[in-house]
Design a protein that fits this description.
One of its GO terms (cellular component) is 6-phosphofructokinase complex. Keywords: Cytoplasm, Glycolysis, Kinase, Magnesium, Metal-binding, Transferase. This is 6-phosphofructokinase, muscle type. It holds the Pfam family PFK. This protein is an all-alpha fold and 107 residues long. The chain has one domain (5-106): Rossmann fold, CATH 3.40.50.460. It has four helices and no strands. Helix 2 (36-56) crosses helix 3 (72-81). The protein is elongated and about 75 Å long. The N and C termini lie far apart (68 Å). The relative contact order is 0.11.
């Protein structure tokens, strides 16, 4: 059913706040959505774990993070771990990105 006038009057003091739970951090009006910080923490744990392996084997690792249409997690992770390359939806790569990436890896 619906809320009766009497029920509405009894609860007229009730304030309701909606909290955005999204790892994408793509909701305007907030500094950081719920879930973003814990997602970044987990990603950095994984980066720390694979960095030693990558260095000891002299290998390049490609890490894909969550984010749907928002590159916030990828960008912040790249900044935090000193990545050489990052792809984010907000800034698509140039047409010859494959050649440029191969040159960087060769160097």
């Amino acid at each position: 059913g619906g809320i009766t006038a009497e029920e509405a009057k009894k609860s007229s003091y009730l304030n309701i706040v909606g909290m955005v739970g999204s790892i994408d951090n793509d909701f305007c009006g907030t500094d950081m959505t719920i879930g973003t910080d814990s997602a970044l923490h987990r990603i950095m744990e994984i980066v720390d774990a694979i960095t030693t392996t990558a260095q000891s084997h002299q290998r390049t690792f490609v890490l894909e993070v969550m984010g749907r249409h928002c590159g916030y997690l990828a960008l912040i992770t790249a900044l935090a771990c000193g990545a050489d390359w990052v792809f984010i939806p907000e800034c698509p790569p140039e047409d010859d990105w494959e050649d440029h990436l191969c040159r960087r890896l060769t160097e």
